[in-house]
Structures are given as C-alpha cells and as structure tokens.
TrEMBL record:
<dbReference type="Pfam" id="PF14128">
    <property type="entry name" value="DUF4295"/>
</dbReference>
<dbReference type="InterPro" id="IPR025379">
    <property type="entry name" value="DUF4295"/>
</dbReference>
<protein>
    <recommendedName>
        <fullName>DUF4295 domain-containing protein</fullName>
    </recommendedName>
</protein>
Length: 49
C-alpha cells in the first residue's frame, strides 16, 4: 500500500514532494497537521509561512 502512494507522487517526469506542517489553532491551542503536495523547489517557502 505504501509503495502505491509513493509511486503516485512521481508521475511521469515530474518529481513531487509531500510537505507536512504543524499549525497551532488560535482558538483551542491544539496542533494540527497540514499536508500539501508540491514541487521540491517550493517546499522551503511553504514551510516558512
């Protein structure tokens, strides 16, 4: 099952990266995880936001 999801991220000649970021909720103070699939060049900008 895990191999199938990894293979889906590398479609054709494009390489994609899955970025997971922890975000604190201002209302409850609990942390949630936000996932996004993007090009490897965009990961640093995504994590800095």
């Amino acid at each position: 099952m895990a191999k199938k999801s990894v293979a889906a991220l590398q479609t054709g000649s494009k390489r994609l990266t899955k970025a997971i970021k922890m975000v604190k909720s201002p209302k409850t103070g609990a942390y949630t995880f936000v996932e996004a699939i993007m090009a490897p060049e965009e990961v640093n900008d995504y994590l800095k936001k």
